[in-house]
């Protein structure tokens, strides 16, 4: 019971404490909504607390939106408290409930009565809606859109443009989505669309996203010296358009209605000195200021009514008017811009109230367009606007002297050339030209009048010193004459140094040594080198104090060789100084080497070709490359760096077929190449030729040997046919009868067969010493020779021979016979037939005896022996009359010894047994017998050759 | 392309032509107008990021029926002429509102919009000639937001969308009706 009492007491104490804090809940809470700004204003009355707890809930779902303690002081006049809150969600989206309580530290009052801000999602507003609608926000804003679906429908999706968004349910019919908008919208705004459960668009809203204005560069100036005109730069694009969102400007508080789009101008009737420009749009405003004195901001208007009071050939005057009288006292600076078809220039003039200027250095017969603008000379600010252009044409004047040149095709024929006068040079329409040829030697002249379309005239000159004059004519008069002395024709082939010149990208740079005789400068002409007839010649003239130039032309083409000739020009002559060749761009030759042909030379092949024609070279030929072509593969054989060399020999090739390709190359590379084939033949002819050469060489050697043998015949004779010493007969045959001093060879014995019919008159076989004294008595030498060589057979007389054995006993027979006898064995080898030389030892045979019958006879030589031992050798060579042909035993046999006489009366005298000798077997030439000469045979000739006899 | 077509149409209009050619000319104009309207509608959808199935709610703005079997060809043409006048009025109002909302722009959409307005005016002249009466060719619509039911910026866009759909519909109707009329008159002339 007691415990119950304490409990009730404690509870009563706490209630008493609460009531004792004195915090009364806020009274008369009121809600005011600014839906466009999504702001909620909460006001209440409470006289004591300054701190309050505010709680905001979404009414339908009782979700707390805000529960915050705020400090709010009471308005002194009304005694009310007001607290503002900006809702992130449009206030139309759903109903909000607001309640407030006072707080003093930890003490709080009771909550106020709940106040409800009704949303538009109440059942009595059944249509679909979306909020906020038509709002303008800056780029980067966080935006929450809510969709209130139609009563009875289900929510589907929320779309930002075509992007489906995540939604949050705020109430039964309301769904919201929040996003950060990072891109400005297009002029019609960005759509946010809500669809129902069938994905049918039910409602939507538009948001305009952009920037606040940001103008710059406000400048105010005067044109009429009274009013002001301010200009500024629009600056950043706001992306906001239309009447409600575009930027509006005010200048010193006055609307600038004309400031639209890019025309940022605003003015006022009077100069104020200070100006403030305010630019404003739904997202904000921007302020610009400017200040200046009028005299410092004068920008004249454009001059008007331009005229040309006076126009001449070389100058004209231009006048204009000002729209404002104040300009008459203004010191002006004006620019006059004149434009012709070839040039545009600006000249500046100054003066008070300037209204007229004189234009100088104009060109005759030229159409000009002029325009004028001015500024304040004192405290110059800006140039005024250009006036409207005024066109006028200057008057004509006589033309300039044409630029002439003479091109000589040959020594006497040439052309006078001149360049067409440009509009700037003609000073009017050229009506024609006059060409005058002067001949100082003859003191005469020839004049030709040519139409305006002619720019050359042929000349036929015989006088080297002739001069040409060309004048041009237009309606205003005749030009000054252009003179030139005709140069001498000098083709490349003459003694002229020709250099190469390279194109440097813009032209051909030429330089030369200054010439003292170039009183009127230099002329460089050029033409296509390969051109032969009616060549297009261009030229340029260089002042006398220049020694270089760059030749430029639009007519230079790649791959074409040009010849540049430098002439020194004077009043007396035009002399060629130097010549160059050059290519604007070298190309590979357009044609392969012509006439490529192979020529076999044994195992070598010589390739020959011709030079590529100049027009096809298309560059300086640097050389040739020779390739061996194997299928499509090229093997380099030689690189000929001498362009003049047009042959090459490929050596040491084996038999077979070959294809050779020769390519010419320039700095740009090789041409396509010319290919030729050759099949190497065996060297038959060469072998035959070599054989013939070898035979010829052998013949020569033999001849030389023969000559040598002839010259050394004595030695040869001694070596091969040693002289058999003649038998030395004692002065008295009868007295000095004795034994034959024969030193028989150990292997050759002579057996003397005794013949009963021995004729003592017969010559005996005798030993004959050699004619060469050196060999005489040289026993040692003799020992080398067969002993039989030292003997001659005895001469057999015809009579004795005829008397002896019949002819059947020829040498062979005799030999056989002797062999049969077995008594003697005599062998003769190479026995000489020089019996006649021993004629004086021979008896005097009867000639009739030599001319015996036609049967076999021993050698007839004895018969030819002269009867008269005193007779000359010619006589000895006379064959005996009536001698007959046929084999004849050697008649040179002689009796060598008396002892042999008696035994040698037979026909086989001298060869008692057998005789073996080729000489014996030689046939006797019948014709020779019949002639006056002795028989001649090869052996005889050879013998004579060796013996030195003719 | 549009300029070339404009020249062709102007040439057609200036040419004196027989009855058959007049119907043919009107039919051709209606066909071109339908193409222009379709193009303009596509540009609008593209500009507003509207899906093709985003069909705005609401009834027809120009509610005339040409499908009644009791209507003669002349009556159909007369109804058509009347509908086209209303369409022209709606288009003029559309242009006015858009220029007020966005300023005077010079994009592809604005060019197509002008082309449709000009061609629609030509078609009205052609149908007037066909009717051989003193039909008015001026726009038959007053810009009234309350009447049009335009509420808010998005509402104005939906109204614009509806107007463009209406233009496309009536241009198509005109093309078909005039083509039928042209075929009928051509057949009659051949019979004669």
Model description:
The complex is a heterodimer of chains A (950) and B (192). Chain A is mainly β. Chain A is 13% helix and 35% strand. Chain A has 15 helices and 54 strands. Chain B is mainly alpha-helical and 192 residues long. Chain B has helices spanning 2-14, 19-48, 73-102, 108-131, 145-148, 152-191. Classes of the chains: A mainly beta (950), B mainly alpha (192). Chain A: It is a single-pass type I membrane protein. Chain A: Residues 769-785 have a biased composition (Acidic residues). Chain A: Residues 302-397, 398-493 form the Fibronectin type-III domain. Chain A: Belongs to the type I cytokine receptor family. Type 2 subfamily.
Short account of what is shown:
The complex is a heterodimer of chains A (950) and B (192). Chain A is 13% helix and 35% strand.
Note the beta-strand portion of chain B.
under 5%
Note the total helix count of chain A: 15
Strand content of chain A: 25-35%
The largest pleated sheet of chain A is described as: 5 strands, antiparallel
Question: How many beta-strand runs of chain B?
Answer: 0
Q: SSE string of chain B, helix = H, strand = E? A: HHHHHH
- Class of secondary structure makeup of chain A: mainly beta
> Would you tell me the overall average pLDDT of chain B?
83
Low-confidence stretches of chain A: 4-20, 734-738, 746-750, 752-936
Class from secondary-structure proportions of chain B: mainly alpha
Round the Cα radius of gyration of chain B to an integer and report it: 17 Å
Q: What's the β-strand tally of chain A?
A: 54
Which bin fits the share of residues in helices of chain B? over 70%
């Amino acid at each position: 019971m007691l415990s119950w009492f304490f409990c009730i007491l404690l509870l009563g104490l706490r209630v008493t404490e609460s009531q004792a804090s004195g915090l009364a809940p806020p009274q008369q809470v009121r809600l005011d909504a600014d839906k466009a700004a999504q702001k909620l204003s909460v006001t209440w009355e409470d006289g004591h607390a300054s701190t309050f707890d505010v709680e905001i809930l979404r009414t339908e779902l009782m979700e707390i939106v805000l529960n915050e303690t705020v400090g709010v002081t009471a308005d002194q006049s009304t005694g009310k408290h007001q607290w503002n809150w900006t809702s992130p969600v449009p206030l139309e989206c759903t109903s909000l409930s607001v309640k407030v309580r006072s707080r003093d530290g930890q003490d709080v009052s009771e909550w106020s009565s709940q106040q409800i801000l009704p949303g538009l999602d109440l059942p009595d507003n059944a249509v679909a809606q979306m909020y906020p609608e038509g709002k303008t926000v800056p780029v980067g804003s966080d935006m929450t859109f809510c969709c209130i679906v139609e009563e009875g429908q289900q929510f589907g999706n929320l779309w930002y443009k075509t992007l489906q968004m995540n939604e949050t349910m705020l109430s039964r019919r309301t769904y919201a989505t929040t996003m950060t908008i990072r891109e400005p919208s297009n002029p019609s705004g960005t759509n946010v669309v809500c669809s129902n459960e069938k994905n049918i668009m039910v409602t939507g809203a538009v948001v305009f996203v952009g920037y606040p204005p940001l103008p710059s560069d406000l400048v105010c100036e005067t044109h009429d010296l009274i009013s002001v005109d301010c200009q500024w730069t629009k600056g950043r694009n706001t992306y906001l358009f239309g009447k409600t969102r575009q930027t509006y400007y005010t200048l010193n508080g006055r609307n600038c209605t004309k400031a639209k789009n890019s025309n940022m101008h605003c003015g006022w009737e009077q100069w104020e000195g200070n100006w403030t420009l305010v630019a404003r749009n739904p997202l904000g405003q921007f302020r610009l200021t400017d200040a200046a004195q009028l005299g410092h901001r004068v920008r004249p208007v454009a001059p008007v009514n331009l005229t040309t009071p006076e126009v001449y050939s070389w100058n004209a005057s231009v006048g204009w008017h000002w729209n404002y009288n104040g300009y008459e006292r203004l010191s002006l600076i004006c620019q006059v811009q004149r434009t012709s078809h070839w040039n545009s220039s600006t000249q500046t003039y100054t003066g008070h109230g300037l209204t007229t200027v004189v234009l100088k250095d104009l060109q005759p017969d030229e159409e000009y367009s002029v325009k004028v603008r001015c500024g304040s000379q004192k405290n110059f600010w800006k140039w005024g606007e250009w006036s409207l252009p005024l066109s006028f044409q200057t008057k004509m004047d006589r033309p300039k002297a044409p630029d002439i040149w003479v091109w000589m095709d040959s020594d006497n024929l040439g052309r006078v050339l001149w360049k067409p006068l440009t509009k700037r040079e003609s000073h009017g329409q050229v009506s024609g030209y006059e060409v005058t040829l002067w001949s100082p030697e003859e003191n005469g002249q020839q004049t030709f009048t040519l139409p305006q379309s002619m720019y050359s005239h042929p000349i036929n000159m015989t006088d080297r010193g002739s001069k040409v004059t060309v004048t041009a004519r237009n309606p205003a008069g005749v030009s000054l004459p252009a003179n030139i002395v005709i140069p001498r024709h000098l083709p490349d082939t003459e003694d002229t140094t020709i250099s190469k010149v390279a194109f440097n990208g813009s032209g051909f740079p030429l330089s030369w040594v200054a010439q003292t005789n170039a009183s009127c400068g230099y002329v460089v002409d050029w033409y296509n080198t390969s051109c032969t007839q009616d060549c297009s010649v261009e030229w340029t003239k260089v002042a006398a104090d220049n020694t270089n130039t760059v030749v430029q032309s639009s007519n230079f083409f790649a791959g074409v060789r040009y010849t540049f000739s430098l002439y020194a020009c004077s009043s007396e002559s035009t002399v060629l100084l130097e010549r160059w060749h050059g290519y604007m761009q070298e190309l590979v030759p357009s044609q392969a080497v012509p006439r490529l042909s192979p020529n076999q030379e044994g195992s070598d092949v010589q390739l020959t070709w011709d030079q590529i024609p100049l027009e096809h070279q298309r560059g300086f030929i640097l050389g040739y490359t020779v390739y061996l072509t194997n299928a499509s593969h090229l093997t380099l054989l030689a690189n000929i760096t001498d362009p003049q060399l047009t042959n090459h020999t490929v050596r040491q090739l084996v038999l077979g077929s070959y294809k050779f390709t020769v390519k010419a190359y320039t700095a740009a590379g090789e041409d396509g190449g010319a290919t030729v084939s050759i099949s190497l033949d065996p060297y038959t002819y060469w072998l035959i030729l070599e054989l013939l050469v070898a035979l010829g060489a052998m013949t020569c050697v033999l001849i030389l040997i023969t000559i040598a043998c002839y010259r050394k015949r004595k030695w040869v004779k001694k070596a091969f046919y040693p002289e058999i010493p003649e038998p030395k007969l004692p002065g008295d045959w009868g007295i000095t009868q004795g034994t034959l001093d024969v030193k028989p060879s150990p292997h050759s014995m002579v057996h003397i067969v005794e013949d009963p019919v021995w004729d003592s008159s017969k010559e005996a076989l005798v030993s004959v010493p050699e004619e060469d004294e050196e060999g005489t008595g040289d026993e040692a030498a003799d020992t080398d020779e067969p002993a039989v060589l030292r003997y001659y057979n005895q001469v057999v007389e015809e009579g004795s021979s005829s008397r002896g054995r019949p002819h059947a006993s020829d040498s062979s027979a005799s030999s056989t016979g002797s062999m049969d006898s077995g008594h003697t064995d005599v062998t003769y080898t190479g026995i000489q037939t020089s019996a006649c030389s021993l004629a004086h030892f021979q008896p005097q045979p009867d000639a009739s005896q030599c001319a015996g019958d036609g049967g076999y006879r021993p050698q007839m030589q004895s018969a030819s022996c002269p009867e008269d031992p005193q007779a000359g050798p010619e006589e000895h060579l006379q064959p005996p009359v009536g001698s007959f042909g046929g084999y004849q035993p050697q008649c040179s046999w002689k009796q060598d010894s008396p002892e042999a006489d008696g035994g040698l009366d037979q026909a086989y005298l001298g060869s008692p047994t057998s005789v073996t000798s080729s000489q014996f077997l030689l046939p006797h030439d019948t014709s020779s017998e019949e002639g006056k000469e002795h028989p001649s045979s090869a052996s005889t000739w050879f013998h004579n050759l060796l013996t030195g006899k003719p | 392309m549009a300029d070339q077509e404009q020249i062709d149409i102007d040439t057609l209009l200036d040419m004196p032509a027989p009855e058959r050619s007049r119907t043919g000319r009107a039919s051709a104009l209606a066909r071109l107008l339908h193409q222009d309207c379709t193009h303009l509608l596509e540009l609008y959808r593209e500009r507003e990021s509207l899906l093709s199935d985003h069909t705005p709610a609401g009834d027809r703005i120009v509610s005339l029926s040409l499908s009644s079997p009791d209507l003669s060809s002349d009556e159909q043409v007369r109804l058509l002429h009347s509908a086209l006048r209303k369409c022209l009025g709606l288009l003029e109002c559309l242009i006015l509102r858009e220029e007020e909302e966005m300023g005077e722009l010079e994009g592809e959409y604005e060019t197509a919009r002008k082309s449709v307005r000009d061609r629609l005016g030509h078609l009205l002249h052609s149908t007037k000639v066909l009717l051989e009466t003193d039909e008015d060719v001026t726009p038959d619509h007053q810009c009234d937001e309350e009447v049009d039911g335009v509420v808010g910026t998005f509402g104005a866009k939906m109204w614009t969308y509806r107007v463009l759909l209406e233009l496309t519909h009536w241009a198509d109707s005109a093309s078909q009706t005039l083509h039928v009329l042209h075929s009928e008159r051509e057949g009659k002339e051949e019979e004669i």
